[in-house]
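Example with several molecule types.
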Amino acid sequence: MDINSNAVLLLIMAAVLNGVPLLYGTLGEILSEKAGNLNLGVEGMMFMGGAMGLGAAFYFEGAGGTSGVLAVILALFFAFLGGAIGALIYSFLTISLRANQNVTGLALAIFGTGAGQFIGEYMRVTSGGYVAVSNDLKAVFLNSPFPAALQQLPVVGPLLFGHSIFLYLGLVLTVGMHLFLNKSRAGLSLRAVGESPATADAAGVNVTLYKYLATVIGGGISAIGGMVYIMTIASCVWNHEALSGEGWLAVALVIFCLWRPLNAIWGSILFGALMILYQRLHLGFIPDELYKILPYVVTVIVLIFTSLRNSKDKQPPNSLGLPYFREER
Amino acid sequence: MHEANSPLIRLAKREGMPKGKVWAIRGASFLVAILISALIFLLMGHNPFGAFGTMITGSLGKKTAIRQTVKIAIPLLGTALAIAPCFKMRFWNIGAEGQITAGAVGASYFALFWADKLPGPVLLVVMAVAGAICGGLWALVPAFFKAKWGTNETLFTLMMNYIMIGVVKWLQGGPWEGRPGSQIIPQFDSAAVLPKVLGVHCGWIIVLILTVAMFFYMKYTKQGYEIAVIGESEKTARYAGMNVGKIIMRTMFLSGAIAGLVGFIVCSGADNTLYSGVAAGVGFTAITVAWLAQLNPFAMVGISVLLGVLDKGADTLQTQLNVPASISDIITGIFLFCMLGCEFFINYRLIFRGSHKEVAK
Amino acid sequence: MEPVHAIELRHITKRFGTKVVANDNIDLTIDRGEILSLLGENGSGKTTLMNMLSGIYLPDEGEILVEGKPVAIRSPKDAFAHGIGMIHQHYKLVEVFTAAENIALGLKGKEHDRKAVAAQVQAISDKYGFGIDPNKKVYDMSVSEKQTVEIVKVLYRGAEILILDEPTAVLTPQETERLFNILRAMKADGKAIVIITHKLHEVMDLSDKVAVLRKGKYIGTVNTCETNPQKLTEMMVGHAVSLNIDRPQAKYKDLRLEVKGLNCRNGEGLPVLKDISFQAYGGEILGIAGIAGSGQKELLEAIAGLQKAESGHIFYYPPHPNSDIAGNHVPVDKAGEELVGKTPGQIRKVGVSLAFVPEDRLGMGLVGGMGMVDNMMLKTYKDTPGPLVDRKAPKALAEKLIDELEIVTPGVATPVRRLSGGNVQKVLVGREIASSPTVLMTAYPVRGLDINSSYTIYHLLNEQKMKEVAVLLVGEDLDVLLELCDRILVLCGGQVSGVVDGPTATKEQLGLLMTRVGGGKEGSQDA
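Resulting structure tokens for the full complex:
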């Protein structure tokens, strides 16, 4: 069977490709919000992650590195580091200094997009106008890690084994986060911190530590999403135009998923599909540019519907957005 | 008491710090921001004094430079004023970006298609009114759902930004496109361009008038009082017999209308055309302006001018020292972080182990 | 050498900010096999003191000894390590967690896996006799069940010293008795128990010793069997107090409010008021009793136009203009004004003068962040013409209230949030009374107030009654309701379970009505 003739399959593949960056962005923000920190700086962290991840791969190769695996690991590490630094600034301001979460998150978005753009520009200028990663390395980031034999199976081949390594890492991360939040004792403490920090505090949970860890690790995970976008969809070229908006979509997806990691899998693929639908499904009467706003429209509709029904298990963490101060009286 | 019994640092809330001390702390935060920025210049291999010097002369050194700086500050101030009543009401409107854009679309419609049918001054007034109405209506959508079903306004307004920007992208490449294939909307007719006063388009006069009006509105009108009560407690407002939903919608319309007016000022006064980046992040930056000013309109003037200086200064850095233009976002971010953080030292007291003295910082 | 105390506090001082001294040089001992009552008025520093044992606050000065050894309690974790467990007044439970998850929260080690927790919870339940379902979500629990979870939680952590902060405030008399029996069983088991309270009859009923605090200072400890409520009150307040509340008789009573078959649902669609019918008269205080959450709040809010009624009527009858001038009491001869379906604004517009002192003073009745002036005009700001607010009349009113009610405040512009609880309530009640109401509704008007302020409020209510205002009083202290009210309406599960006569009813009678669900002579009238 010729897979290229199968438009639906192609659509799914493209949806997954576009969904994976969102998956990371969303997972990171879920972790942060579960601890009660609404970090609106995801956009900024994804920019930082994208630029630093690209930089890591680019300079690794420039320094004579040839191992594709090592390049991926370095890109992951530096992207994580970029987001974690951004999230650390946010954490210090909102957790230790009790600044307003909304405003600090926006400030981080401004700072992070600037920093990401700066690094991207800087690399471009210093390397003579063009940041180029070899085609071999591009392939390592973009192509499936599975042997060709598996990928060439009809339908299930591409469907199950035809994606970039980042999808599989993302799935492992999602399941891991699900188990962590719902089955582990630390996850229980983390959720308690987000629901009612005073209760967690009284039960002997170190609220500050949990909030810091959740936000910083969450920021790092979100930032990996930015790197994945640049290294796969943008073909290893710094493209801030294309990347912009991803972080905000991730924030929206967190709500769409009702703060549950497992929902993020299909949620991000659905959003990925909405983002590229205009390329695959041409309807003459709807212009492409209007197609592109579909994810945002869908989020708005979801927002309205979730506000209509009122289920206790489907609400945001109770202390989301609020600072915690023990000696309050 | 045993020294080891208490942690190294403890916190206590405080109220009513003397004004002088408050400003000393804010000044200190400013210095810290300058120091961090200097460090970044050093890392990049530039002399920080030279870099700051370039920024200051580039933004305030010449008449033309000052005009450029003012031009940057105008939409920031106008949008911060738009956001102020919402934030006072604890309605987190982060959709100013979209409301500015919607206002620009409304104004552009008349600039593009009515320029030859209306006399100049009338055209400008019509454009302003259309901008305000479009911005207001765009803001009214999330407000309606908030009032009706309590739909989360932070994310709703955020999404509305991208929807409106998408619409403009469509207009650019579609119905309003100038030369086919250009993806650009044609320049406005000169009648649709705001006249200049003292070398800068007269938007600066409009926002300064708005500043005084907003101060007056919030402090002395019944509507301002209602907004303040709802911001403190919706329950109290209901108890007092206020129609909370109606007030939310009214306030959001006002806020969107001012943002829409800013959209008109930007596209008519500064850009002379419409494009998808008309708001250029002003909607987000203005939120931090409004917050740092603690919603005081006069303080907003100062902060938006400061951000204008940073922005224009960084622009000069780019042309003179070949530093990427995005340095302005980084420096703006650093200043915002420091100013956000310093409020902590005004609202809380640090108590170090083994001392009962107040420590300011 | 004395025997070693379970806990000994030496010279404990705690300050908040630079001005407030919450605890001033306090010494206190707590022993095993004993129930100690920590007695004091609101704001006397009882909870603050105990929070230092539970690791919520740190003392500024002084030391804490557990079993004779000085210890540092820096966090709730440290407190557990020393066997101290505290049940706070506002339960510290995560609403979306199950009982077992709440109990396991914050514990480390393999022995605390899900099965082990469930088994041990069962063992504790059996030992002291409370039933608890480990897999029930907290948001589905009653107040009493939540309290049980809290107690099991601290016992699970091996607490030997239990501190309970106002544990009976939200319980019915029957639930209270059950709790007391559990506490007695724990005492017999050799545990040390402290209950923080300001209810004298509980002190007399339960405890072995009473320690009294007053304005942050330690006054002394007495054996319960050697004291009486009058003596304890004097220790608490610092001077002799009459514990009697007046119940003057108004000259006239005429029908003011009539509620007929009122049904309401809350935000989640559950019925909160079911077929409520009663009448309220000008010139009487109608008490409303019930377990917390029986529909008291919704009933008052429905009358005030804040809660949508599903069906039924609320009729308002204005006072007859002649009744208080000539002394000729004219009976109601015209139809009442229907209040159902009207907003608070509309109710005001048709000339109904309702005053409402809600339970949540700073969250509903007042704007905490505003000064007295802005709070005075909360309901009247629209009455002046034009788009601008007029602050002259409210300012005059604020100054008048400060003068008449002896409100202590730095100024009319000071945010009311910064005033003490008693002064906040005076501001609120003062404003409501200043609107010369014909119906005055108050919910828990003396909660959190010291004895002197409480009596000021009782006096104000009686004054209104003598002005032939219909006073509706939702209360929690049955003793006070019985002494103050002319009639008491009892709510149970959103229904009227009975209306009794204030002067003749007994506490037991009220307690029974509070827990009887449905049936009987609901909605009956005896006025």
